[in-house]
UniProtKB/TrEMBL annotation:
MF term (GO), any: antiporter activity
GO biological process terms on file: monoatomic ion transport
Name of the protein in its database record: Multidrug-efflux transporter
InterPro entries referenced in this protein's UniProt entry, alphabetically: MATE_fam (IPR002528), MATE_MdtK (IPR050222), MdtK-like (IPR048279)
Main location: membrane
Amino acid sequence: MSIARHLRAILLLGLPLIGSNLAQMLLNVTDTVMVGWYGVEALAALVLGTSFFFSIFMLGNGIALAMMGRVSASLGAGDELQARRDTRMGMWLSILFGLAMLPVFWNSAAILRALGQQPAIAALAQDYLRILGFGLAPALVMMVIRAYLSAQERTAVLLWITLVGVVVNAGLNWIFIFGNWGVPEMGVRGAALASLLVNLISLLAQAIYASRARGLEHVQLFQRFWRPDWETFWAVARVGLPVGLTAVAEGSMFQASALMMGWIGTVELAAHGIALQIASIVFMVHMGLSNAATVRAGRAHGARDVRLLRDGALVSVALSLGVGLLTVLAFVFAGKWLTELFLDEANPASAEIVTYGVRFLMVAGIFQLFDLMQVMALGLLRGVQDTRVPMWMAGLSYWLIGIPASYLLAFVLGYGGVGLWFGLVLGLASAGGLMMWRFWRGPWLEG
């Protein structure tokens, strides 16, 4: 394949996935805005509840992320039967994990109080999680089907289903949160119910498409779904658990950074949150490209085509790096304007928040270059089904380098919030460097 054909293949796969990722973020933003209209306590409970939910979701989502590489490799080898077996057992694992986590959601108030949260807010967050907890299994199964459709290079439908979900979610929020159309006013519980229903609707739409779409119906994805396939079950679990733990390791580093920034000051924490939100939007672009790289690498690996694997990886990384360099310029030269988008000029603290936000975004320019390195390397490694060693690399980089470096630079050496961000840079640089080295020196590129 020529470079142009590689680029076209990555973009055809990646652009809908990027759009789907951004639309998923819009779902969360919609919940935050509409619950914020309802009340401050409800908003605090929502933020607390969603953070709790997504910490668990990231662990379970490792199944889908790992399965994307396995299914792509099976399809690359022309083995549609194995692709169906992997997907079906991925759904089994997702359902079992979702059911196992229900007691955790049901008793979440005690956990949140133990973590130092206010009892009233913890109780309200538990009300939210007792409803949304039933949506974990559908959400994870939906991610498994999303991985299967991505491996089949059917990503456009995922974008449209997510966009429809955004609209439906906003409408259901309006009904359940505020008690419109004769429905009792439910507040934050209404937001949970809306999210649960959207997950179920989106899952149904994806399942119908995956089983009946032209060119996919012969796979018979749900044929004898109830029958166990223990060999594949444990194979998917062995690959998926390290992926989930890798995501938790990275996510926990950012949770720890928010906690430490809160020790520095409220203004700094607000600026930190804004800078991370902007960086997260850009990260969705690299995540979409990473998922596309997983599919392309998996297909090449399954076909035992080393040149296709190597050239596709080079184009994927170069494309992500090009986007990264453009965003560096945006963060450096438009940091003030980007930060001001999140603030009310009438707020007396806005000017100080903008000052810190500009500084953090300048560091974020460096930060996101290493962030794209690690997410692209992870995508490529998942394509060749290498997940265990990257898990240990992530734990080393984030917990033994990133968090200690942030604390040292921020508090011991006295560089404050900027020092904390440079600590995050060091953690991500370690992860990106180690994982890139792992992929480019791996046996899958020999031959």
